[in-house]
User: Fold this.
Amino acid sequence: MSALAGGEAAKAKATSAGRRRLPKALTSLLPLALALIAVGAYATSQTDLFLTSQNLSTLVQQIAVLGVLAAGTTLLLAAGMFDLSIGALAALLSVIGAKLAEGGSGELTILIVCLACALLAGALTGSIVALLRVGPFILTLGAASVYASLALVVAGGRPVPASDVFATLGLGEWFGLPSAGIVLAVVLLLAALLLRYARLGRNAYAVGSSEDTAFLAGIPVARVKIALFSLSSLLVGIGGVILLGRLGAGDPVGGAGLELQAIAAAVLGGASLGGGRGSILGTMLGVALLGTIANALTLLGVQAFWQQFAYGMVLIIAVILTALREHGLLAHARRTLDTRLGRLRPAR
Amino acid sequence: MSDEERRNRGEVPALELQGVSKRYGPTLALDDLRLTLAAGEIRGLVGENGAGKSSLIKAVAGAMVPDVGTVTIGGHRLTPPTPTVARRLGVSVLFQERQIAPDLSVAENVLLGALPRRQWGGVDWPNAYRRAATELERVGIELDPRLSAGRLTPAEQQSIEIARAISRDARVLIMDEPTAALSGTESERLFSLLRNARERGVAVLYVSHHLPEIFELVDSVTVMRDGRVVATQPIETVELDRLVELMFGRSLEGEVAELDEAPVDGEVLVQADHLVVGDVLRDVSLDVRAGEIVAVTGGVGSGRRELARCLAGAQRPDRGVVRVGRGLRRVRSPHGAARAGVAFVPEDRKREGVFLELDLTENINVATEALHRVPVVRPRRRRGISDRWITRLGVRAPGSAIPAGALSGGNQQKVILGRWLEAGARVFVLDEPTAGIDINAKLDIYELLKDLAAAGAALVVFSSDFEEIRLLAHRVLVLRRDKGPTWLGRKALSERSLFEIGVAP
Ligand SMILES: Nc1ncnc2c1ncn2[C@@H]1O[C@H](COP(=O)(O)OP(=O)(O)OP(=O)(O)O)[C@@H](O)[C@H]1O
Ligand SMILES: [Mg+2]
Assistant:
């Protein structure tokens, strides 16, 4: 049929565009990677303590909980959702774990109980969001408050000591590597595979891009949302257990602010609150950047109060750069140049 | 002579573009474009999908900043190129994509940015409602100005936008495919409003893929191709064939073939029984057999959209049942409908049809993957699938890796069709399937739909395009706001019979 002729030209162009694709995904993360290297380099130049295997292990342990939570947050953000209760939930689970340890339960029991509670919480939140069409912002804000309060009640207002449970997971090593880091790596790998290769992951991006379109294209939107909330919470369960091991106690306020840091890390890595975007690789870099900043500030003896300041500035600069790249002066200058050059080229 | 007088005497063009270029990644949407438009002229703007018509309009409206070139409105340069400045210079635009704030009232949407104020800055609501109602009446529609706009049908929303564009006392009035969602009567009303505007010395730029409209309405026509103007001529001096040749760079071969007779013994694939939705859809029943194409038509508020959504499972009827597919399974959700082999192409493409940020690979594979039980996808394979549909349907795109939002409207529509063809649907519910599609692609799509029917699919085409209905439909269901539904056979299908029951102009 005559009109299909345009397809040939499109196809010829398609291959060249296809080849350019991967580097583009990487170049969008380049500024973040450079920032990470810059912070690392600066810290190295200022103190010998930074670039030691000892400190790097510590760094990995420090970011493990945030990393696991941020992976879950990336899944949710892909679908245009988020969960503000994950920090409080992680703390609550660590308190429950510590209480169980106090009562003589073994690590396996504690792990199972924590994961089960987490899954239940996630499924519940997800169902309310998906079936009753409640916006996740207020709902999870409310849930955060409930969990935080429960954690304080259960713990009796003070950290519940549990020095031996999950100590290896929180602070020790497996095969000569920090064990929390190994867990983090496995979680990140699985989450990345899920987002890229699993139907659920692709559906998450679709729902995040346009829920109406996803619904009409036959995607079971409610099921997708419930699954994502459940998965994210399951990761919070893992995070809570690592937290318990790291602190050697169930700290009812130990997870404070983690939810916002997780969102910040994901957004640094290219996710957007509007949904449809984000990647685990990006989130991982975001987490690493935040963690490295905190670690370096500590080593350099900067007052801990400045840490929030640094986080905030990083985030602000990142969103400004993104905006400039997408529709600001930088983009305009580049296009103008392209067009001027394009006109000098021989006929297309 | 003052500038003002020269302007009024038509010596200064109402609109002038000089050397305007705009590049999006690999595509040059506008390529050294030049165009002049005089006051008191209705200019048609035509060109195939992706020719750059909407990009031109965005440049004039200040909605997009060209890379190079100047836009001059009534002798004043559009600097800085922002929507506010364009408005102040007298540009009023109805964009191709719907611009409705769904949570605001009808009145606020009509008077967007120009609500009447009281002395201390408060809104003068009684006045606002009155004015909105008057403006809506002018475009021929009765709507409660207090309703929230998000709950209206696409046609009603379109009327709101027309009222808004017309009410803004413009010197340059631009309409990008305003009739896509309108029926004949409503279109006629719009044309007379545009002619009135011309009498008042307004310069009108009118974009449409519906060429009969162009011949009916405009004084002169500009043809765009690949971001350039290829011709501008008085309308009396061009013939349809010549216009088409200018648009596509070649003439279109052949007419659409005669429709085959509908098979009488096909399996029933769609069965809607006594559907009732609120007071818009009152007791409509519908059976569609394999191999059959049924068209549904009706004006604003006739329940057309509701019927389409019920068939696709996107909406539950208040009463009645929809069953589809082999074994006539009951439809409860779009997911369930899709499983039973139903494809749904909604009318509002940008909001409900495509994933604007996602690439074509995602857009095309999404339905197939939503249905299959396999939990993993294979990137290379799905990429191959989307590349194949892009080629087969002639989507103008530099590959599968670009986001659907970067395609022109017509090409987006092809992507949606590709999505459902890949999913192997047997029942197609298509709401205005060729709205915004150039005639070349339209003919392709007609052929495609007929082939589908010939291969045993059942099609329900919701359309307000009479020509489309005549070419495609075996039977027509006419819905009307106040009276019951009427069926027309293929034989009875003449322009006259549609006119008699009050749908066509
Ligand atoms: N925001 C964007 N990003 C990337 N490419 C774009 C963008 N907007 C338009 N384009 C490209 O520019 C070209 C011109 O698009 P435009 O929307 O102006 O076409 P059109 O003539 O209005 O087509 P249609 O008749 O389908 O509406 C197309 O190739 C389109 O893919
Ligand atoms: Mg357009």
In short: Chain A has a mean pLDDT of 87.
